């Protein structure tokens, strides 16, 4: 009887140890498992093809060579500059700013297969070509930044398809237009809050119907009177930068009703009826915190 109880006790201890070991392994597996899904194969392949569409300057520091650090057949959600939706594994953000990429951004680029991109930053690369119409295929984009990319030509009309686009930065390129594309495209971007088109070669009049904007930066070669669309009073527009243009009308008094906090009219020509700007004009801008009138020419 004593022998039987001893054997039974041994078996209970053995089963307890097995149970503890099994639970310990389960806990370790849960802890070791990643919190996000792995990058989907088609997403990884599209990124890898995109990387190979460009060459990277060999004389730039290694930390700049973002895409050169990518390794095929690994989880692309862990690659530098890549962010994925943790629930679906789909790529939602690509930040390759200043990555020393050289070569044209082709209309059939594998980039445009990343249909769930929400934020795209390609700034400070050398694409030396046009911004292709295919950019309009990325219909979920809320942020598009292509600053200083050596892009030229007109802004593609397909940008008007990006109904979620809130932040658009195409500054410091060589975009040219007499105005039609801007006039047609920008009013369609009903989610747009911030736009920066400084240091391009746009001409003509400013686009209208931009009452949703909180930040507007132009600095180009626009002419004619300053008309910034059907802005309500007060509007959401807090920052207005329209320097380095050639407006031939007066500074519109309606600007004082917009609740602007920052106004930059520098390096521009204004027909004010006198040879200097009347500073008392700006006393009506009750929300204004920063005003730049440097190198303003009046007549």
From TrEMBL:
Its Gene Ontology cellular component terms are: plasma membrane
Keyword annotations of the record: Cell membrane, Glycoprotein, Leucine-rich repeat, Membrane, Receptor, Repeat, Signal, Transmembrane, Transmembrane helix
An example GO BP is: detection of stimulus
Signal peptide extent: 1-26
Location comes to: Cell membrane
Main location per UniProt?
membrane
Protein topology in the membrane:
Single-pass type I membrane protein
**Which is one Pfam family of this protein?**
LRRNT_2
**In what residue span(s) does the Leucine-rich repeat-containing N-terminal plant-type domain sit?**
41-85
**By its UniProt entry, which Gene3D superfamilies does this protein fall under?**
Ribonuclease Inhibitor
In terms of InterPro entries, this protein maps to: Leu-rich_rpt, LRR_dom_sf, LRR_N_plant-typ, RLP23-like
What's the protein here called? Leucine-rich repeat-containing N-terminal plant-type domain-containing protein
